[in-house]
Design goal:
Elements lengths: L1 E6 L3 H16 L3 E2 L8 E6 L4 H16 L4 E6 H5 L1 H6 L3 E5 L7 H6 L4 H5 L16 E4 L1 E2 L10 H5 L3 E2 L2 H13 L4 E5 L16 H11 L4 E4 L23 E3 L7 H7 L5 H14 L4 E8 L6 H14 L3 E6 L17 H24 L5 E13 L2 E7 L5 E6 L7 E10 L2 E10 L2
Parallel strand pairs: 1-2, 1-3, 3-4, 4-5, 6-9, 9-10, 11-12, 12-13, 16-18
Antiparallel strand pairs: 7-8, 14-15, 14-17, 15-16, 17-18
Length: about 425
């Protein structure tokens, strides 16, 4: 059977779709790079914004138009609106997030134990071969109650995978050629809180650094209230990437309270200072939500000033999108769309300015780069693009393709958030 797998949204969704690919391959089926002519299509949907939900529906319609034999919808939007998913053309099954881990076994009519006992080494999906990093799911669900977020409803309560389970996935990814492993989850910082006795994310990271052979270990998004100063001592191991993605969402204390975020600007500022003191040259990136209900000019100005003060190395800026089923969807005093658009542009410009300044600070330095994109051969050779452990984008010319290799690169100049460099030496992945 030919199987096409597609995903919308977060890295966790991508991790899940890669796990499904391994299971289908283990059962003897072929994962293909297009829905055209596929016997089965699985779409892992997203609902974090109205645009993501719309994109999810569009992906399903595209698969149907391509002539897919059968379509299975899963993920957050499907979990929230299963009947709507089933009404889309070609959809034979709507599988909720709570049953997603058993999706392949259900579709194939095989015991789940078959996959647990006979795991396969990781292989990149056919249309994602240029991405070298392996996303490993360590946790699902969330116990926070942020008033704007629908993901908690769609994903359920927080639940953690054991160190042994995660370590097995990490080592299979390494055996499959991955030099960098990214730990992902809905609420990554809550890992181990559902265990008896309770454990902490630091326990998982120490275990992986001790027992895995990954060249690089990267953490995805971490809520700031899950961390304390001692957490940053983990970065004494150089394999742990010097990048912290800490979602701020808003730089105004009043807006943060309405969002039910468990932090304040002062607490966030102190945490970032601790991280920068403990981890030399750490990149701190963030998420920002603009136009939350009730956000006046003064609150926005306060938030914009705070973002400029923090000097983020990068970030994502979103305009508030009311999600049915969340408290914020019914909040009074909505911000008009033109105002949200204007404020989003100002916030993106502030983040871009600080990101460019952070990149500029590396000019003249020699860094290690994991190459992830290899373009067509040109007059200068192969054009490579990759990432430092701080997740700074680097571009360079190479005499031969260096995909999934780590090179020493002298950085010559910055072009916005991207650094142009000269490759000094490379080692095989």
């Amino acid at each position: 059977m030919k199987v096409f797998l597609d995903s919308i949204g977060c890295r966790l969704n991508q991790s899940e779709i890669e796990a499904m690919a391994a299971q289908f391959r283990a059962a003897g089926h072929v994962v293909v790079d297009s829905p055209q002519g596929a016997d089965l299509v699985v779409v892992n949907t997203c609902a974090v914004t109205s645009e993501a939900a719309s994109d999810s529906r569009q992906k399903i319609r595209q698969a149907a138009r391509a002539g897919a034999g059968e379509i299975v919808a899963t993920g957050c939007w499907t979990t929230l609106e299963p009947q709507a998913a089933l009404r889309l053309p070609g959809v034979a099954r709507a599988v909720s997030n709570m049953n997603k881990d058993e999706l392949v076994s259900q579709v194939l009519g095989l015991p789940q134990a078959d996959f647990d006992l006979e795991p396969m080494a990781r292989e990149p999906l056919p249309w994602l071969r240029q991405r070298t990093r392996a996303f490993i799911k360590v946790q699902d669900g969330c116990d926070n109650h942020c008033t704007f977020c629908i993901t908690r409803v769609a994903r359920g309560a927080g639940r953690s995978r054991t160190l042994a389970e995660v370590l097995g996935d990490v080592e299979r990814a390494v055996q499959g050629g991955a030099l960098e492993v990214v730990l992902t989850g809905v609420h990554l910082g809550s890992w181990g809180q559902d265990f008896q006795p309770r454990q902490h994310l630091a326990d998982l990271v120490r275990g992986l650094l001790t027992h895995s052979s990954a060249a690089r270990l990267r953490l995805s998004s971490l809520e700031p209230w899950d961390l304390d100063e001692s957490f940053f001592q983990l970065w004494q191991d150089a394999r742990l990437c010097r990048h912290l993605h800490l979602p701020l969402q808003a730089g105004s204390a009043a807006v943060l309270r309405r969002m039910a975020r468990k932090t304040t600007p002062d607490q966030f500022r102190a945490l970032v200072a601790q991280a920068r003191a403990a981890i030399p040259e750490v990149a701190v990136t963030t998420d920002l939500l603009v136009g939350f209900p009730g956000e006046g000019e003064a609150e926005f100005a306060e938030g914009l000033a705070f973002v400029r003060e923090m000097g983020f190395a990068g970030g994502h800026v979103f305009a508030f999108s009311p999600r049915p089923g969340t408290p914020a969807a019914s909040y009074a005093d909505p911000v008009p769309s033109p105002v949200k658009k204007q404020r989003s542009a100002l916030m993106r410009a502030a983040v871009a300015e600080s990101a460019a300044a952070y990149a500029q600070s590396f000019v003249g330095r020699t860094v290690e780069v994991l190459w992830e994109v290899c373009s067509a051969l040109g007059p200068e050779g192969w054009r490579m693009q990759g990432w430092t452990d701080q997740y700074v984008r680097v571009s360079a010319a190479a005499p031969q393709p260096l995909w999934n290799q780590i090179s020493s690169v002298r950085l010559l100049r910055a072009q916005g958030e991207t650094l142009e460099g000269e490759i000094l030496a490379a080692r095989q992945g």
